[in-house]
Write a structure and sequence with these properties.
Elements lengths: L4 H15 L3 H10 L5 E6 L6 H5 L6 E6 L15 H12 L4 E7 L3 H8 L6 H10 L3 H10 L5 H20 L3 H8 L4 E8 L4 E6 L4 E4 L28
Parallel strand pairs: 1-2, 1-3, 3-4
Antiparallel strand pairs: 4-5, 5-6
Helix pairs in contact: 7-8
Bound molecules: zinc ion (ZN).
The site of zinc ion has 7 residues, from helix 5.
């Protein structure tokens, strides 16, 4: 069994190199509480840490993570609403102005969804039930990309499931009202791990596109050997 001391050592480094060097930040966060500007719904996957990927600071981003970064629809969001209660808290209590659903390449949850194997045990049933949220995304991929490789279909489903979650977000009246009033914006992001790129969903174009933001002093990976993948129209997503 691999030990966890590596994380304790990591926390010690955080204390010395981050906490001790940012007293104003932590004094303010402690005294005034949090006012994150965005909520991110991300996958549990250990390779897709939102704080690391966005280089954000404590207090910047409210994060909820689950298998395959899914948001259930309003009608199914009552019992043990781990994800949706976090979403409600971020929007209604903290007043975040952006919700980002961030999917990623090589998502194990989406691969399991595409394989669609009958659950063989209790633990597989738990995962399969959760992944039902994105069942429509799987069916749309099979319909629109029949005969394509598993790799292509999985990638398409990773992106289609982001759109499904955005659509589900709009099924909550307190979300759609804020979106329609211009107080809340929804975003679909896709972390292309292979290329180290971030794609954003462009609702006008109906596809995920490499970010074209150029930040001074940063390497620009946008567009390098990466073709925007035209996928599925976002249904009734506004
Ligand atoms: Zn994942």
């Amino acid at each position: 069994m691999r030990d966890v001391n590596v994380f304790l050592k990591g926390f010690r480094r955080f204390q010395h190199h981050y906490f001790d060097r940012n007293p104003e930040l932590f004094d303010r966060l402690f005294a005034e509480g949090q006012r994150p500007r965005a909520l991110m719904v991300a996958c549990c996957d250990s390779r897709c840490d939102p704080g690391v990927l966005t280089d954000s600071e404590p207090g910047d981003m409210f994060v909820v993570r689950n298998v395959a970064n899914l948001v259930p629809p309003h009608i199914q969001a009552t019992a043990y609403a781990g994800t949706t209660s976090a979403i409600a808290f971020a929007i209604c209590n903290l007043g975040v102005e952006h919700v980002i659903v961030m999917g990623h390449a090589r998502c194990g949850g989406i691969r399991a969804l595409m394989e669609n194997r009958p659950p063989a045990c209790d633990e597989e049933l738990l995962i399969a039930k959760w992944l039902e949220i994105a069942a429509d995304a799987r069916l749309r991929v099979l319909k629109e990309l029949p005969g394509k490789s598993q790799e292509t279909q999985a990638r398409a489903c990773e992106q289609a499931s982001i759109l499904k979650s955005l659509e589900n977000l709009m099924s909550f009246p307190w979300i759609s009202r804020r979106v329609n009033e211009g107080k809340l914006a929804l975003h679909g992001w896709y972390f292309d791990m292979e290329n180290g790129a971030l794609l954003q969903y462009d609702s006008d174009a109906g596809e995920f596109r490499a970010t074209d933001m150029h930040i001074e002093g940063c390497a620009d990976h946008s567009g390098e050997s990466l073709q925007p993948q035209r996928l599925i129209e976002p249904g009734n997503l506004s």
